[in-house]
Amino acid sequence: MNTKTNQATRVPVVDQKGRPLMPTTPARARKWILLGKAMPKRNKLGVFYVQLTHKPSGYNTQPIVAGVDRGKCFTGIAFQTKLVTIALFHACLPGFYKSKNQGMKNETLDRQSVTGKMAKRSELRRTRRGQRIDRKKTFKLRNHREKRFDNRRKKRLPPSVLSNRQMELRILWEMTLILPISEIRDEACGGDTKKNGKGISPVTVGQEWFRSEASKIAPVIEVDSLETGKYRDRLGLIKDKKDKSKQTPETHANDAIALAASYFIQYQSFHATNTHGHKWVGECVVTPAPFIVLTRPKLFRRKLHQENYSKGGILKRQGGTITPFGFRSGDYVEASYKGDFVRGWIGGFTDTAKTKNVSIYDHDWSRIGQFNPKNVRLLQRSFKLCVSRRELGNYAAIPLPTLAVPK
Questions:
Q1: Under CATH, which architecture does the 298-384 domain have?
Q2: Are 287 and 302 in contact (CB under 8 A)?
Q3: N or C: which end of the chain has fewer CB within 10 A?
Q4: Is 178 in contact with 47 (CB distance < 8 Å)?
Q5: Are 65 and 52 in contact (CB under 8 A)?
Q6: Per-10-residue mean pLDDT, the chain, length 407
Q7: Is 373 strand, coil or helix?
Q8: pTM of the predicted model, to two decimals?
Q9: What distance in Å separates the CA atoms of residue 278 and residue 19, rounded to the nearest whole number?
């Protein structure tokens, strides 16, 4: 078992110009901050790092490998070195949110997922087109929109798969700004069947598109999904196969660690004089690391109004990202109520003659409550991500940076 819990994780480091260097220990980072040799910062993914104020002693780096364990609704991403785990991510993919009625006969699409939004948008579009048609005329004279382009020519990804792969790429791009990533290990997701051949499944096409884009960051190596369990067992990691929606490292992040560790350890064959077989070669140590859950704000950006009329034949407004109180949907704010403080993301507002408030949601997009805009303070402008940080190791002793609020 190569898991050691007595070792501290590492803090990413960048130089004065923002170029990533090798991570350091939390104790050294704390010392640099106190002596004024470094400034504490956080990136958009919530990862703590320091930026040096003086020229570094060197630019030599060691291998840092990213492991990507892809699922339909969730993806785990880990960043691993030979002796330490740097960061773990649990990404809740926006393409397919699990419906509350999942498993039932009358299962419906989640309206807040990309799939549900696209299905509802096409339904409303068909309704509007039907209202423009004069059915008294012959079929050739009716008001039909002409074909604009042939959408069968291009190798286009479904919007749901594309949004999922883009979220995974964003994590890698944000981390490559603070870590010198040397290689990306991606698990094969399957999709090759004897009947259809290779590359027919949209999931497989999305996987190949992801690898072509990720290769711009670092070389991408495919790892067979059947090999993941072997590396996971070697490292002594636990796998939760019952409920993969749990926001814990056991669902996807541990598999991502195993994929990244395959760079440092291998199960190789050997031949001796009197025997032969296989043995493990190499070393990889798994340590406590920050576990970060990432979701996207569930906003209706293009929806103008609700489908059902309210009293008086009025269609209520729905969607949009601007509020009349100076906030935007997705902004990270702090609200005070009866001496207590809550933090969350703006998700909507009410602006009537009697009521003026904003709705604040947590990272799972469950509404915390509605608050008076006068009691709400802006912490950070929206960058289309909701971050839930669960710091492990020795991060708690490091002074946190103050979030800058743009005017």
A1: Roll (2.30)
A2: no
A3: C
A4: yes
A5: no
A6: 59 94 94 95 93 92 94 92 94 76 51 79 74 75 63 70 93 96 89 54 85 94 90 90 87 94 89 82 91 90 72 78 90 90 92 91 92 94 88 41 39
A7: helix
A8: 0.83
A9: 41
> What is the distance between the alpha carbons of residues 103 and 233, in angstroms, rounded to a whole number?
31
Token pair 């798969």 is at which residue? 161
Residues with Cβ within 8 Å of 128's Cβ and at least 6 positions away in sequence, in order, are: none
What superfamily would CATH give domain 11-96+157-295+389-396?
Ribonuclease H-like superfamily/Ribonuclease H (3.30.420.10)
Residue carrying structure tokens 């009866």: 338
Helix axes 159-176, 202-214, angle to 10 degrees: 20
CATH 2.30.30.60 residue ranges for the chain: 298-384
Tokens 């070697």 label which residue?
Answer: 234
State the Cα–Cα distance between residues 332 and 318, nearest whole angstrom. 21
Closest CA to 321 of 352, 291, 293, 296: 296
Between the two ends of the chain, the Cα-to-Cα distance in Å is: 51
For CATH 3.30.420.10, list the domain ranges present in the chain. 11-96+157-295+389-396
